[in-house]
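Marked as duplicate of an earlier ticket. Keeping the data here for the record.
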Amino acid sequence: MHKEPVTRALFDQVMVPNYNPQQMVPVRGRGSRVWDQAGNEYVDFTGGIAVTALGHNHPAVVDALKTQADELWHLSNIFTNEPALRLAKKLTDITFADKVFFSNSGAEANEAAFKLARKYGHDHFGDDKYEIISFKQSFHGRTLFTVTVGGQPKYREGFEPVPAGVSHVEYNNIDSLKAAISDKTCAVVMEPILGEGGVIPAAPGFAQAVRELCDQYNALLIFDEIQTGVGRTGAFYEYMNLGVTPDILTTAKALGNGFPIGAMLTTDKVAASFVFGTHGSTYGGNPLGCAVAETVVDLINSPDVLGQVEAKSALFKSELEAINAKHHIFKEVRGKGLLLGAELIEEWHGKGQQFLAAAREEGLMILVAGPNVLRMAPSLIIPDDDVKAGMAALERAISKVLAA
């Protein structure tokens, strides 16, 4: 089969312009290193935005995909399949959940969660139990419903009218939630750490107070752990670190290490509202995705991986602090585990992309969370030498930007 040569210019020719990808075109990855078409090598601190938690081309994950590819790719949901049931059993064994719904993405997992919350409210409390409360600066996906629940108005502009019955309160401000919650509230939706909103962890006691308010008003607590889950913070899911159990949890991103898969986890009591025919997905729970995810879960849910996240986090933070001691560029370094954000000082607010571009030229792939925060979400098993090499590249990039 003849393959046409691919350049960045081809993107502008054939793709809808909702993205603006970088000029370099990655073609190969291994571990925490990536190579582009020209053979340039990069240290990867992005993890595909918290997705490739086991790095690129992990041999066990590749083997799981190849093995399942020789067996069965797809079944309609008229049937079930062995990988889906094995994965669901492992997820329920690890977590509070009794039941699982599989989707293709995090947005679809959230869509299912929000629909289930409304259905549960309707079934148990009547037509008026439908309001959903979320938090400002949160991010929950790009479907019309999930972008409505997300707390960033810029993502809703031009798509109105959006679904009604959704409101937003201040994160880490329990009084703001107290003023908004009522007997009409069917669910409160929160990220344990705001990801796209700037890598902002829940303050001590905040999640517990949200849980208590939900109980008081018979509202479900939904944790969006799409970015924080599957080992990212050192626990398999961050709710375990917080000591707060949600009623519904959504997960995706690292669950498939790059193979598209998402899941909604919940209890028997809540799941009962999704009776036959109320929700579905053509590809959700497909054998390929579930076989890959089962291997990912087995590898990450182990002392070898989870037990080293905090040490790697400490190395990242110490390297960032050393850079800051030299250049005084960060207002704050925050986050948990290997989801970290370095907020730029005020005079550099809005200019995060300059540091991304400079880092790329120095051989480092890095992210932003909004225009003011440099975000790192690397492989959970990134070698220490790669951390140090990436930080050396970041320091060179910062030096260049500041000298320009």
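See parent ticket for discussion. The first strand starts at residue 26 and ends at 30.
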